[in-house]
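User: Working on a comparison across species. This one is Peptidase M36 from Hymenobacter frigidus. Can you predict its structure so I can line it up against the others?
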Amino acid sequence: MLALALAGPLGALAQSGTPSTQALTYFATQSQRQGLRENDAANPSVTSSYFDQVTGLTHSYLRQRVNGLDVYGAVGDVHTDRTGKPVLMHQGFVVNAARLAPSATPTLTAEQAITAAATGLKLPHPVGVTLVREARPADGLLFNNGGISEYDIPVRLMYLPVNGQLRLVWDVTIAQLDQQHHWTARVDAHTGLLLDKADYVISEEVSFQQLTARALGSRTAVAAATAAAPKPTTTASRGTLATPNSLTVFPVPVEGPTFGNRVAVPFSSINTAYSPYGWQVNDARAPAGTFPDAYSRISSGFFLTRGNNVAAYDDSPSTTSGNGNLLSNTNSPDGTAALDFDFPFSQPAGSKAGAPAAITNLFYWNNMLHDVMMSKGFDEVSGNFQYRNAPNQGLGGDFVRAEAQDGSGRNNANMSTPVDGQSGRMQMYLFDNPVRPTFTISSPSGLAGALTVVPAAFGRSLSKFPQGLCGTVVAVNDGVSGNGGLHGCATPYVNAAAVNGKIALIMRRGCSQLPAGGNTGNFTEKVRKAQQNGAIMAIVIDSLATGTAYVSMGGTDTVGIRIPAVFMNGVDGARLRQALQAGTPVVGCATTSPDYDGSMDNGIIAHEFGHGIHTRLTGGPGNSSCNIASDGTTATQSMGEGWGDFFGLWMSTRPGDVGRTSRGIGTYASGQPTTGGGIRNKPYSDDMTVNNHNYGVIGTTNYRQTHAIGEVWAATLWDLNWQFIYRYGYNSDLLAQTGGNNRFLRLVLEGCKLQVCNPSFLDGRNAILRADSLVNGAANSAVIWTMFARRGMGFSAVGGVRTNGLPTTTGITAAFDMPVGTLPTPVLDPRTTPLGTQSASAINGSLVDAYPNPAQNVLTIQAQLASKSAVRVSLVNLIGQVVTTTTAPVGDLQRGLTVNTSNLAEGLYIVRVVTSEGTFTTKVQVKH
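Assistant: Here's the predicted structure for Peptidase M36 from Hymenobacter frigidus:
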């Protein structure tokens, strides 16, 4: 007997529909044909199910259930058309689960599971844990935050597949207070051992700045690139651009300050089809009571960058460092009752004075992303981000919390995407200016000049001293280390009085050989001791007097360091040291270039928002664990970073761009010119001489990290995007449904809805093909196959080995072939197909007649088309396979070609006619 259980956040099903009995029966039947036992798929829980009004598809996402408990990671999906007929299903259920499952009675209580999870995640011990909401353990209990989580802690009893067995576990969700991780952890329900974990926060494995340094190479290359980087300029102040009811921003598609100018975007331009309540809580289109609770009360009398889709605010160290202080009226810019959000901006923008302009820009772009993506299918029922949803259209209360100048990190950005009904969080950081700081000596004259230094990763930033930090340099004497105590290993210094109020000169290393009690000599300890002796700054010089290298002073400020510190190479440091030893006073100023603000790099904003899109769409809005980059031990074919880059490129396509235009990611935030290579291994372009990424590089030396892996996926999507543009034209209205750019973005989002949980690249390819079949009648299957084959994901490609349900990078084999019977379509070149025009190869079904329709044994195809060569007429099934092909003179087509359909299976087919003037299609039904 087939049963149905509803599952979701604490048992609440985020759905606007339920899977039909027909769909569930089909799922169970097909699962048995795929090797499952009869009861393995008979009692699934439904994490989400919704009806898509545009496509007519109902998407249902399931989880295996045994002994009344869900099996973590054992997921499936089934998709039906308007008639309820199943059109696609996947399952990753455990075979013979009932036999493998142990007793459903835990030894540990849910409260003890929280403590066990905190221990396994190396978090503080929870205190004062109390139950907030009672429920069955199988449905999930809710506890308070226990002093270790930003939110209340859900705990749920489940099974977890481990090495061919099922283990009884407690699933515990903890959002770390530092906002760097939002964990879902599985701990053994008997021993408390941490068995598995996943992170809702998708962040950079290495910082943007590290990637930039790798891309630019040597110090000389850095200097050359930054010489061409944007120089600080003032662009606007309050009242110079804006009018009431407007936002002064770098509007879509301007990627950032170096790509164009700010303009005043009126609130009246908002498309109410996608934001019916407007963007701001005081919008007249939001009826009274739209925001009835604390979200509106904190805005009473204030007119802030907060609304139904996003709340954007300052999260810098001067407010609540990294703590997301939404409950404040002082950390969002106030547009006043006139809703005039026009604020001063200077470039680079990474200063406290520039925060209001940056937050306004962040607010605008998140809202635009909401509206554009909603127009393409990322809507309320599929799990988009909104405070208030239309009735029965998914779960509300999950607007994006967009945090500008976030104090929890630098040179980075991230997006946290829990399940539908819980807010996504976008953390945007400040970025170091790649022009390195300098220490400029004014006295003595023999040393006068600017010396390059490297700032420490800890302590106060030099950017906090816009006019520079100046003073007299004093060599420290700790009384115990070599070189006259210059290593600063112990405190107080012998010359503490001389160091007080001065700039301390300290030599690297030299502390490890001291007797026990001599204190450690790491960078943070040395700088801390200088601070304790009254220094206003520390210069650490290399211990090698002939050294020219610059060392990055890493370390975590766990000791309250409040002064800046910089590293100076050995050659420059030796000159200062020699002058001081000779009794010559040294006076100088440390200065740095302004930070860049990530909230002004619109490509990065779109990239991070993109993580929210693919996380909510893949596996459904009730499951945020279907795009795992790694299980902690195994690198996977995670395409998440690729989707992020693609969305950033798509949103910032500029008039005049063509496919071969070289596009870098993060050029503004990393201080590069608009033509810079960006922070990836290669810039994006459909010119294979610029970007020749293919599937075969994944898993090789430089392509084991998620961003590098994602580059291959993004390059392929970018190719396809341009081929659609050349076939269907470009539409600058990004909310429209016409134009190749808009048509392809919808396919990408539909593919995310249809693909298997934790897809491989080939799974993603197949999902886009299936989306084209269901939405467009497979009209684009040839070009889709062509571009995937071009990047090594052809018909014979092998997708690698799955481990623990994840597609690994092991065993991948690239292939560049097409399915049998499918001929590659010509790759259109931008030099012959200008942007903004519709190609002669645009598909026009009205020019082709196929009759009778439905056809039984014979189909006649007729079209009054011109062709300089023989025409090729094919029938294509819904998965893109060519089932029959005929080549004939164009005159035969004009008179009428006959095709034998007696051996074809019943169903819908695409008639594709290829001429020298273009490709034309129509649909036909075969029914015997």
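For your comparison, note: The first helix runs from residue 21 to 33.

User: Helpful, thanks.
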